[in-house]
Design a protein that fits this description.
By secondary structure, the chain is mostly helical. It has three domains: 53 residues, no CATH class; 44 residues, no CATH class; 39 residues. Helix content is 54%, strand content 8%. It is built from nine helices and two strands; from the N terminus they run ββααααααααα. It has a two-stranded antiparallel sheet. The two termini are 38 Å apart. About 14% of the residues have low confidence.
């Protein structure tokens, strides 16, 4: 189920966040109502009323649009992926990203799936523990770095460690 426009029954295609005096307001509008919300001057010319706090919120939202939030730049301590990279790629880098970017991901997941908890099946080859999966991610990252700097002895040892962990996991 998709969100509907706050002013009519059409699907909401614009999701606008206004920040006014520290207060955050989220709006969900269709095409027509989004234009009306974003350009209050046109609306005031038509209706003859004066806007109250719309210009201040428009300035604040335009400033916020130019400046990415801190979470966009903050990297995951395990895979070094930022939320901005996730937005561009559409995939997370490791399981820890779900916790690292939790506040940013929950609204996205809820909009897309109408749920924030997994309700389907799990793959049969899913890792037994996140610790083992984290260790595998770190080993693969270190292996890639060793290959890049042409340290093939270290790369061979890391490859063997990865194979051992995969065999223990029953892959």
């Amino acid at each position: 189920m998709r969100e509907k426009c706050q002013r009519c029954t059409k699907p909401a295609t614009y999701h606008i966040t206004d920040i006014d005096g520290g207060k955050v307001r989220e709006h969900h509008f269709c095409d027509e109502h989004a234009r009306q919300h974003l350009s209050p001057q046109e609306e005031t010319e038509q209706t003859g009323t004066t806007p109250t706090a719309a210009p201040a919120s428009s300035k604040a939202s335009s400033r916020a649009a130019k400046e990415p939030p801190a979470a966009e730049k903050r990297p995951c301590p395990y895979c070094q992926m930022t939320f901005a990279e996730f937005r561009n790629a559409g995939r997370l880098g490791c399981p820890h990203d779900y916790e690292e970017f939790r506040n940013e991901l929950l609204p996205l997941l809820e909009n897309i799936h109408d749920e924030t908890r997994h309700t389907g099946k799990f793959p049969r080859r899913a890792p037994d523990s996140t610790e083992r999966q984290t260790q595998m991610i770190e080993l693969r990252k270190t292996l890639k770095q060793a290959i890049d700097v042409e340290d093939y002895e270290l790369a061979a040892r890391l490859r063997d460690q990865i194979r051992t962990l995969e065999q223990e996991a029953g892959r």
